[in-house]
Amino acid sequence: MKKVLVILIFLFHMNLYASEDKKVYFAGGCFWCMEESFDQIEGVISTISGYSGGHLKNPKYADVIYTDSGHVEAVEITYDPNIINYKKLLDIYWKNIDPFDANGQFCDKGKSYRSVIFFEDQDQKKIIDKSLKQLQNKFNKKIVTLVWKFEKFYKAESYHQDYYEKNFIRYLMYKKGCQREETLKKIWN
After folding, report:
1. Nearest 5°: phi and psi at 98?
2. Are 71 and 112 contacting, i.e. CB atoms less than 8 angstroms apart?
3. Would residue 30 show up in a list of annotated catalytic residues for this protein?
4. Scanning 51, 102, 120, 175, which has the fewest C-beta atoms within 10 Å of its C-beta?
């Protein structure tokens, strides 16, 4: 009986300090590149490519890219808040986009490739607003990244998931052809 009581106390104590994983949603052009950028970060548990911000339910790639569904290519990032926080993820996001391009990101142009930060509550919104203001002051240039209230995320087709790993050579050719790394170095270094 004593062992059972000790185990129950131990489990109860662990649950008091356990925190649930959290999710954040960012759009930064090609979702393959955003997946790669965040998968490397300690504390990030998973990334999923998908679509968010539009009016069409259950959109497919063709709906997002070739029609005006209102959606952007986005990533759902699941993270452990005991290891990394929202502000740090936002800082990483900035370093992986061109915040001055209103027409898309790198070689991907159009509404579906715009940079968007999705917020779920006023705490996130405050962090975003403060970060935006700091970047505006640093660059003395208008940041055009959009800030939208998060509503719904739709997972992209399976062939988009982990594309950078499954199609490594094609992905590298795409990334190099878009001059993503060169553009990011010019902005952030």
Report:
1. -105, 100
2. yes
3. yes
4. 102
